[in-house]
Amino acid sequence: MLDGFQDLSFRPVRNDAPLRLTPAQIDAYNRTGFVQPIDIFPDSEIDGIRAYVDRLIADMGAEGNYGINCYQARLSGLWDIATDTRVLDHVQDIIGPDILCWATAVLSKAPHDPKAVPWHQDAAFWSLSPARTVTVWLAVDEATEANSAMRFLPGTHAGGALKLRPASGASVFHIETDGADGLGEPFTNTLRAGQISLHADMLVHGSLPNRSGRRRCGLTLRYCPPEVHVTDDAWARGVEAILCRGDAGNWRTYPRPDNDDISRTASPHVVGNN
Prior knowledge:
14 strands, globular, single chain
């Protein structure tokens, strides 16, 4: 049995020679807990990624919008997106040269989806320590305030674990951050399709119901350095990490899969929605 202890403190990024991010962007990440928008995939490439994600959602059926979790070691298409050099260069500027992707999720809010993702801190749902995961949120569709783009509460990443309460209304989660209304003005994570944001795992964030007639689909990619470890062995059984760059440390990692048919496999079900 692992020890169960979690260090959920934020450690500011120190990087004197970033590959992609500017010093101002790194400073913004340290101060606010996120950086955006960042251009990654041009229209021709994001169109192909969208077609791929659409196929996964269709093949998954009724659960496709929120059920495609943690297939990065089981589907070659997701593996290839997670290991794209352009993405990894930005991640390296935050967590260093040794990069593991331990989770991914397709998060598709259909037009007029009534469910909110309540305010929450990602790391509160995970059995990982220390809190050093950075989440890349790739806009598969354009994400705007109108179609329920993700929202951040800037600066909340540095306050440690916040109190929780039962979630109210139609919600993806059953719990939410208590007192979020008093934590500052929300920032709407507006992104064009093909752009990404990066946010810290203790940043309070969420999204409103999609009251528009446009879908809002994103792909989250969760990366950590090998100093992070799993604190609960039952939870560990749902983690299938891939080594994206550098040294894996003590993590067990999985090779690129031959399969790209979601109907021929299943997810280990480590969940995280935004």
